[in-house]
Every structure is written in C-alpha cells, then in structure tokens.
Design a protein that fits this description.
The complex is a heterodimer of chains A (505) and B (604). Chain A is an alpha/beta fold and 505 residues long. Chain A has helices spanning 7-19, 32-45, 57-69, 81-91, 93-96, 109-119, 123-132, 146-159, 182-188, 207-216, 248-256, 273-282, 296-307, 313-324, 333-341, 348-352, 360-371, 375-384, 396-411, 419-433, 445-448, 467-474; strands at 22-25, 50-54, 76-80, 135-138, 161-166, 225-227, 237-241, 265-268, 288-289, 325-326, 392-393, 440-443, 453-458, 477-485, 489-491. Helices cover 45% and strands 13% of the residues of chain A. In chain A, helix 4 (81-91) crosses helix 6 and helix 14 (313-324) packs antiparallel against helix 15. The chains are: A alpha/beta (505), B alpha/beta (604).
Chain lengths: 505, 604
C-alpha cells in the first residue's frame, strides 16, 4: 500500500520540479530523500521519466525504497554517478575517447566520468539521454567533485530539467578530489526557496535532538570556539571530558552495549583507519571495523601476501590474525611469532605452556599452513582461526574479504596475481548487496556520511574541528550522542574543498 | 524507421550479400532472373526483424545445407523512434552509418545513428537476435546484447504472401489483433467477442470490432479497388486452432474464401492500419493474384502512401514494371552464391525503354538490335532457331533471352553499357557503319558484352546484297515490295530511290526494279549490289524510308535471309552464326572480375 504524501510535500515537490533547473539545500535528516522521491513521483504521474543519480549503492537503495514506499514502481531509474558514467563510457568508446573494459574497476571511476562527460556533448548521446529521461535528479550533490559537476552540467545541456539536492555542510571528501565552489553550483541550479526542513530522522526517536541540530546548524562556522561543557544539550546528548582517562572511550563503548540489542551504535574514530582499529582492540570484538568501499587496508595486506614466499605464508597469517583480532596478546610475537617468521611450526609451544591453550585452534591452523603452504590451506585456516576462544575478531569485513579473495585465487590455480582482482570482485559484490548488517560499529565520518544510527559515540571531538566533519558526526544519531573529548573547548575551522588545503594531513 | 543496409551470410541461396540502400528512396522493386535470390533477400529481412520468438530454423536455411557456417543476417535501421533509442532499449549499442551505408562502432556526430540487428542461427537451429557493431581497434571484449521481441515488434517487416490468411483473423500476432490492442485492451475485447460469438451469434460482436471492420473496408477500397459492402467480424467455424476463430466476413462469407488478390490486398490494408507510418512491407511477387488494373492501383498506393516507411516488392510482371520508374528498380544477381543488388547508374537513359519494353528488364540476357529492321530479322531467326526444323535444345526464352528494338547504333550501345553494369548479359547487334558506335563497341566488349557487327562499313541491307546475284537482288526487291503497305506507290518510290543511288533510269529495255536489265545500261553486278543495298537501307538521316524498317518488314527480311541459298555462306552466314552462338550461349554469369561491381558513389 503506497504511502499517502502530505499536501505540503506534494506542493514542495511540484514547486521544485517546476523550477528546474534548480537545487534544494536541506540539512541532514530533514527530508531530502522525501522531497526527491516526491519530486520523482510528481514527474512520473505527469507522464515523465526520471533518472535519479546518487553516489553510493547505499544511496541507490535508500532512494529506491523510498520510491517504493511512495508507490512509484515505473518511470524512475536510480543509479550511481559512477555506474552511469561507466555505462556511457563502455557504450561509446569513440565518443568518450576511451576504451573501457567490460568489468567496472572502481579505481577508474574518474576516467569513466571524464569519458562520459565527453560523450554527453555528442549529438546522438544527447538524443539517447533525451529519449530516456525527461528529468534528472542528482542526490547528495555536496559529494560531487569538479568532474562529477562537469558531467552533470553536460547532462543538463542534454536533458534540461535537472535538479540537484544536497547540503554543502555535509561535504567531506577523500584525498585527491576537488569540490566545485558551491556558489557556482547555485549559479547553475538556483536554490528552490520555501522548502521547509522537517527533522524526519528523529521522529519517533528523539525529536528534541532533531530540533537542536536544526537550531545549531547556522552557528557552526569557522572561527567559533565551542565550550563543550557549557552547551545546553537536549536530552540524549551528553559531553564527557576524558582528559587523562585512557579508558574513557572503552568505558563509554562498553556501557553502550547495554542498550537494546536491536539498536545500532556507532563509534566515530579519528580520520585515519589505524585509530579505529586500536579502539577495536580494546573492545574485545564487541565492535566491528567498517572498511572503506575500496578496501585499501585489505589490499595492502594482500600485497604483502603477494610478495611472500610460500614458506612465510604462516608468518603472514600470524601477523594478519593479530591485526584483525582483539585479545591478540596471547599470540606472543617473541616465541610463537618467531617460529612462523622462521617458517617453522609453533605447535610444540602448546606442550611447553598451557597459556596458549585458548588459541590452540589458531596455532593448529597456522601449523597446517607451514606444512602445506598453499592459498587453499590459508583460506581453510582463516575459516577456523576466529573460533579460537582466546581471541576475538574485530575486523570482520577485512578478514572475510581477504579470505574470499585468497579462496578465489586458489580456485583459479593459486595465481597470486589474481588476489587483488578477486578482492575487487568481493568488494564489488558488497557494492551491490550492501554491507553485512552489524549493530556495533567503529567507523569514520567519511565512511558514514549519509548513513544513520541510533546511538553515536564521538571518540574525541578534538578530531572534528572541521565544520563539516563535526556536523556529519553529530547528525548520524537518531536517539543519543555521547561526545567525548580530551579538553573542553573546540575551535572550529573551515572544511577544505580541495587537496591544497588538505596538505596538513 | 528506415532500413539502411542488409548484410547476409550463409542464408539459403546466399553465401554472401551486402546491400546498402540508396538514400531518399522508400520503394524498392527487386527484379532479376529466376534463382537470383530476390525472395531470399525479402525473407532475410523478415527473419531479422521478426518479433516472434521460438521459431526455429531448419537445415535448409543454411547455404549449401552446411550448418557448420552460421546464418548471419545484419540489418541496419536508422530514424529510430525515441522509444527505441532510450537507454533501456538500444541506447547502449547504437552504431553509426554514413550516407554511403558504411557502418561504424559509434554514432559520431557526422553520421546517422542506427541499430544493427543481427539474426544468428548456428547448428543448434535456435535463432538469436542480438546487437552488432563493427569492430573497433583496441576494443576486444565487445559483447552482443539481445534485441528483444518487444523492441523488434516496433520494427517488424510484414510480409504479404500466400499465408496472408492469418492476418484476416483476430489473434494475438495478427495485424487485426494488434490493431485492436492499440485501441482497447485486446485480451478482454477478444475474449469478450470470442465468448459472445461462441455463445450466441454474429450479433454479439462488440461495436468496437464492427467499427474496426468498417475501417478496414474503407482502407481496402483505398488501396485495392475491391468493393466490400458489408465487411464485419464473424465466427469462422472452419478452424478450431489457436489462429483465432474470429475472422473478417463479407456478408456471410469469410474473407479467407475470397480470391488470393483480395485477401492479399486486405492483408496489406490491415498491416497499414495496424502500423501507421512505421511498418516495412515485404511483398513477394506483388502481381500475384491481381488483375492488371488492381496491380497498377496497388503499386500506385504503395509508392505514394506515407503509411509504410519502406516497401520492398519482387516482381516478374512487365505490367508492374511499366508503372514503375527506373530509379525504383534493384537488379538482383547471384554468382556462385554471391548476391549483388544494384540500382541503375543513370536511370534517365532507360526510362522510355522501361515503359515500352519492360520485359527486357526481366531478362537474363538482352539482345539489343540496332533498329526495327534488325529487331524484326532477329525475331524471325529466333522463331526458326527455337521452333524450326532443327531447333536448339533450349529455346531462347528458357535461357532468359529477350530481344529488343534498339535506339540506333550509339543509343543501343549506351543502353548496353547501362545493363551490363547492373548484371545483365548483353548481345548487341549493330551496324558497323557508324564510327561513334564502333568506338563504344569495344568498351562494351571489355565490360563483358558480346557485340555482333558486320565487317567493313556494312549495314544489314548492304551486307545481304553483297552476296546476291542479279536474280537474288530482284528477289530482295520483291521481298521489300511484298511487305510494302501500298505496293504500287512503293514500286514507284523504290524505283526512284534506286535511280538516285545510280540505277539506270527506266527505258524500253531497262527497268530499275529488274536488276537483270541493268547490265545493258552498263551497271555491273558489283555496282548493282551496292545500289540496291544503299537504296534499301535508306538515307542515314531519314531511315524511316528504309524498305524493311518495321518489325513485320524486318521479319520478312529475316525470312528472306533464311530462305535464300546464296546467304547460307559467307559473311551473312558467319554473322548470324555468331549471333546465334551469343544468344544461345549457356548462361554465364557476368564476369566475376568486373571492376565496376560497386555502383559509383551517388554524390561522387
């Protein structure tokens, strides 16, 4: 049964569609997806066809499920900008001036975007776009870099009725990208006025929190000094100064385990991945590490495996096991690690001392790799190692995807050069099927923008002095936020929009 | 939608063919001798653009029945509607095609966008419809994409043939069915009508179907001069299969009981209504079952109506050709499995011939005779050679030979060149007394034609007279007088003509019409032969005065040649032997190495 749209939402949608090309700027959680889906429905009801472009597969799923809720089953195609660019570049290599192979390679996405941008100005590709869609809506526009922006402008030249939705305050980006100047975006897509933000994300969870986030939004500006202990927080939000308390974060995370099990908890760590993994090490495997989509942590470990001679496979496995598990002190490097680094088995150490008994399973598995150093044996060892009583897996994604890649390469005749291809396949299937659902997660703002959780623990507010970073961190929570910091004041700084300003990292 | 190019490999009688359709034409009449694979070309089009799946092929669909080489038919279609160029249809694999029919991987700005549908059948006999794009350097993993039935159905090429009856019934795949579904919900309309018809009587037919039947009636009248008084849907109890029991009736008679021509016309009308402006119509033997006047009317309709995007017909009918323009003709020739489809280079030159002698265009071998005299002479000889006391084993007609009256020496030679280029065998029978014609003759021989000429500077009349004695010359003159319209007057004018050419004037002993008397006046045999020959031939500028210049007169001359012993030797005999050999030569294909296979670039 399709959800009935409110008159207000219908009016907003109609006004937006009529104003195209136009933009809608909306705060996090305040109904942007609602407006987008309603606008798409407005077009479809009028006999048009809509292309919705987002950035991530999670975004595709979010929009698609909202459209379904609104009873829109045909006339809308939802895709990521990379998929669309790949499709165009693959279809018209001459017009895109680039030969693109059949399988999409995530690392090549900017090449796809540039090729698609070139193809989109050609007569017949324009005709294809015009024949396919009457309207184009681009979501999360703040995540468009300059190349995405150029491609969207060419789409606009072809189709005309293009709308963009986004929130410049949520713009966070990776390393090498340059974001377009937001005023330039508004020049191409004038802001559609009078669309009232509604704090939908917090409805039924914590309305006070939603209202507070809307209220503080205008005040999050560079140069402002926040006295974190002197803010009137709404219910559900608290601040804890953990200066000198090295177990402060672990305690906060452990106490969050008592929250209802079906509610999600996110610990936001500092920007670098190692920070999250060291936190995970203290939490006994109760929290899992979210990997970035490209899986560079896994990739770097597989690269080590590629370089390793078979006699050192077990040594590699020993190191990787430590990296991915909490309680890894029991895998002592001095005695056990040395055995493997010499290419020898470690089983005899189980006889000499009982302290390693809780990791007997792991040691037996690694010894089998010593005896039979093949990729197949490695993967088999990885199947059983996490079931050792003495250690707890915390990097589930990394562990399982590495195992999938190793098993895949083993199946292809143990060709180690295929490890990264197999990893790309595993990560690509993640793109399509979504992440395995886990309820206690450690991640970074860059990876969780656009996602929502019931409870958020900010590991150290001091890591989020950039305006956009702080805003994204605060707006992920539906019910509660626990802000931790070593210190009580935070001076906000401008978020960089390109790599030049990013040099300090 | 517009078909731009058809490439065929290993389909039935065609090992390979590539036809790039000239731009700006939408009506194509495929002509050619038997076994030139015209019909196969139509069938290939039909198969490639067919919207029904599940029709398997058979072994005999393969060239030489060799299933090891797949059947591959590629059809490029441009001017596609938006619905078909969208991303969920052909938008991801459009190709480009330029004005000369050269296709390329991407539709660059300078060319037309098109889809190339590939119909592929391998040894498993399961047809596959998929996309094709020409290879692109550096791109080695191009995958074919399926071209789905629902998209093909927007491009379907409809064939009007003896199986047209299916379209006179309401079924899901018939044009009547499609026509209904475009107006109403077919299933319910048909089910309702069918059930009602089954349950009760003809009065149960829904108003919607009755209206439709009336529209078909009007359309049939527009295209076919068939008068229906009461066309309506009815229950055809002669069939109990799934083809549909609801059929068109005229009064109480199901239309399927009408003559073939009427059924074909009605079928064409329903196609036209069902596919306004977008359908491609294929008609094999367009004349089949139609009286000449209905054929002419139908052709006129097909050529001018906007209702069809393209119309392809084959024909063996001179009547049909007479009402077409030479630009509309496509000559189909098959040589060792290679089928060539060529338009005329310079259709203007053959326009009047198409009107006066359309059957020439249907021949395999055309004997172009200098003028009326030669034409008549050759006709008389053909009668003798085909039916006389010592007939040829295969009559000339069986060899596809058509003799025509030429257009003088140079005119005939020009025609010969045109015909040679599009694949006809040519025998050119001309005088050797015209220098311009002599120059053309060698070009024609190089292009593969046979030129039969008199030696020296002879015409047929002078060549004959050169072998006659006085009595023979007299018989020649009598033969001319035999066929004169007014013997008395002609006798006077022929005598006068002979005198002008040097015959002695009439006196007591001398009669200009009696050559045996000329010696008295000092005109010897040598001179007499010249005088009679030139007199019979007439003046160069006034050839109508020539004695045998009419087909029946030419025939009389032919008979004279055959019956005169003095002409069974020497050059006359040699020339006619040469002509006979050329006419009855076993059909050889035009030399495969002919350099000008490809028509010139139209804009070149």
């Amino acid at each position: 049964m399709a959800e009935e749209l409110s008159d207000e939402l219908k009016a907003d949608a109609a006004r937006f569609v009529d104003a195209l090309p136009a933009s809608v700027v909306m705060p996090a959680g305040s109904g942007k997806t609602h407006v987008l889906a309603a606008a798409a429905k407005h077009v479809v009801v009028g006999g048009g066809k809509v292309l919705v472009i987002t950035h991530t597969n999670a975004g595709v799923q979010a929009v698609a499920s909202r459209l379904k809720r609104f009873g829109v089953t045909t006339g809308v195609h939802v895709t990521t900008i990379t998929s669309l660019a790949f499709w165009l570049a693959r279809a018209y290599p001459v017009l895109g001036e680039r030969i693109v192979s059949r399988v999409m390679v995530p690392d090549d996405s900017q090449d796809y975007v540039q090729a698609a941008t070139r193809a989109l100005v050609r007569t017949h590709v324009k005709a294809v776009m015009r024949a396919s869609y009457t309207h184009v809506l681009v979501d999360e526009y703040q995540d468009c870099n300059t190349q995405h922006h150029a491609m969207v402008l060419n789409l606009k030249a072809a189709v005309g009725s293009v709308g963009v939705l986004g929130d410049p305050l949520q713009a966070i980006f990776g390393f090498s990208e340059q974001l377009p100047d937001w005023d330039a975006v508004l020049g191409e897509f004038p802001e559609c006025p009078d669309i009232t933000p509604e704090p939908w994300r917090w409805a039924g969870h914590n309305e006070d929190l939603g209202a507070w986030l809307l209220e503080i939004r205008p005040h999050l500006t560079a140069g402002r000094v926040l006295q974190l202990d002197n803010i009137k927080y709404p219910s559900g939000v608290r601040f804890t100064d953990i200066s000198g308390n090295y177990r402060g974060l672990a305690n906060a995370a452990r106490s969050a385990l008592s929250l209802p099990p079906d509610e999600t908890v996110l610990v936001i760590s500092a920007r670098h991945a190692a920070s999250g993994r060291s936190i995970a090490g203290q939490l006994d495997g109760r929290y899992t590490i979210m990997e970035e989509v490209a899986g560079s942590f896994i990739g770097s470990w597989l690269a080590k495996l590629v370089d390793a001679e078979p006699e050192y496979y077990a040594s590699w496995l020993f190191d990787f096991t430590k990296k991915c598990h909490a309680g890894n002190g029991i895998l002592d490097p001095a005695s056990l690690g040395k055995c493997y680094s010499r290419g020898e088995t470690g089983g005899h150490l189980l006889e000499s001392s009982a302290k390693r008994e809780p990791v007997r399973i792991a040691i037996d598995a690694m010894d089998r790799v010593v005896v039979n150093p093949t990729l197949g044996e490695l993967a088999a060892a990885m199947d059983v190692i996490p079931s050792s009583a003495g250690i707890r897996l915390h990097s589930h994604e990394a562990w399982y995807d590495a195992k999938t890649a190793i098993r895949g390469a083993a199946a292809e005749g143990s060709d180690k050069s295929l490890l990264h291809t197999e990893l790309a396949k595993a990560r690509d299937s993640l793109r399509h099927t979504g992440r395995r659902e886990r309820r206690r997660i450690i991640s970074r703002t860059l990876l969780v923008k656009g996602l929502e959780y019931d409870h958020v623990i900010i590991a150290d507010a001091g890591n989020h002095a950039e305006v956009n970073d702080l805003y994204v961190a605060l707006t992920r929570a539906r019910k509660s936020i626990n802000i931790l910091a070593s210190g009580r004041s935070l001076t906000l700084v401008e978020s960089p929009r390109g790599p030049k300003a990013h040099k300090k990292f | 939608m517009r078909i731009r190019r058809i490439d065929i490999e290993n389909f039935r009688g065609i090992k390979s063919a590539s036809w790039r359709l000239p731009l700006g034409r939408r009506f194509f009449a495929l002509i050619g001798p038997g076994d030139s694979t015209k019909t196969t070309v139509l069938t290939a089009l039909e198969r490639a653009l067919h919207d029904r799946a599940g029709q398997s092929a058979v072994d005999t669909d393969f060239y030489d029945v060799d299933v090891a080489h797949p059947v591959r038919i590629r059809v490029a279609v441009d001017e596609l509607p938006d619905e078909l160029i969208a991303m969920d249809a052909f938008g991801g694999f459009l190709a480009g095609i330029d004005d000369n029919g050269e296709w390329m991987h991407d539709p660059v700005d300078e060319v037309q966008r098109c889809v190339i549908v590939e119909f592929l059948v391998e040894a498993d006999l399961e047809p596959v419809w998929q996309s094709y794009r020409p290879p692109l350097e550096g791109l080695d993993d191009e995958e074919s994409r399926p071209v789905r039935a629902r998209h093909r159905s927007r491009m379907t090429a409809y064939r009007i043939d003896d199986r047209i009856d299916a379209h006179l019934r309401w079924s899901r795949s018939s044009s009547l069915g499609k026509l209904t579904s475009s107006r109403d919900d077919t299933r319910s309309t048909l089910t309702l009508a069918g059930r009602a018809a089954r349950d009760a009587a003809a009065s149960a037919i829904t108003d919607a179907l009755k209206t439709l039947a009336r529209e078909v009636q009007e359309q049939v009248q527009a295209i076919g001069t068939t008068e229906f008084a009461d066309l309506k849907p009815g229950l055809d109890i002669s069939l109990t299969n799934s083809q549909g029991n609801l059929a068109l009736f005229e009064g109480d008679v199901p239309l399927t009981n009408f003559g073939l021509g009427t059924r074909r016309l009605t079928g064409a009308a329903t196609q036209q209504l069902a596919n306004q402006g977008s359908a491609t119509l294929l008609i094999d033997e367009v004349e089949h079952g139609l009286e000449p006047h209905r054929l002419v009317h139908l052709l006129g309709h097909l050529r001018t109506s906007e209702a069809f995007s393209q119309v392809f017909v084959t024909t063996h009918s001179p009547t049909a050709l007479q009402h077409l323009e030479p630009e509309e003709l496509v000559m189909v020739r098959s040589t060792d499995g290679v089928t060539e489809l060529r338009p005329l280079d310079n259709p203007d030159e053959l326009r009047s011939l198409l009107k006066s002698r359309p059957e020439a265009f249907l021949a395999r071998r055309i004997v172009i005779n200098e003028g009326k005299t030669e034409y008549g002479v050759v006709l008389e000889h053909l009668d003798e050679w085909n039916l006389g006391t010592d007939p040829e084993p295969a009559p000339s007609a069986a060899l596809g030979v058509v003799p025509i009256e030429g257009n003088g020496g140079t005119g005939s030679a020009t025609w010969a060149q045109q015909f040679l280029k599009v694949g006809y065998d040519i025998v050119l029978f001309i005088d050797s007394d015209d220098e311009a014609a002599n120059n053309l003759a060698s070009t024609i021989e190089i292009a593969g034609g046979t030129v039969v000429r008199w030696s020296g500077a002879h015409s047929i009349e002078t060549a004959i007279c050169a072998q006659l004695d006085e009595a023979g010359l007299n018989a020649f003159i009598q033969a001319a007088l035999d066929v004169a319209d007014d013997r008395e007057a002609s006798a006077q004018s022929y005598a006068a003509k002979l005198v002008t050419k040097g015959a002695p004037t009439a006196s007591e002993d001398v009669d200009p019409l009696n050559v045996t008397t000329w010696a008295e006046a000092g005109v010897d045999l040598e001179r007499a032969r010249e005088i009679v020959g030139l007199a019979a031939k007439g003046k160069t500028i006034d050839k109508d005065k020539a004695w045998f210049k009419r087909v029946d007169k030419g025939r009389r001359l032919g008979r004279f040649i055959l019956d005169t012993p003095a002409l069974q030797i020497g050059e006359v005999k040699a020339t006619f032997d040469e002509l006979k050999a050329a006419i009855y030569a076993r059909p050889k294909s035009p030399p495969a190495a002919t350099p000008n296979h490809q028509p010139e670039q139209p804009n070149g």
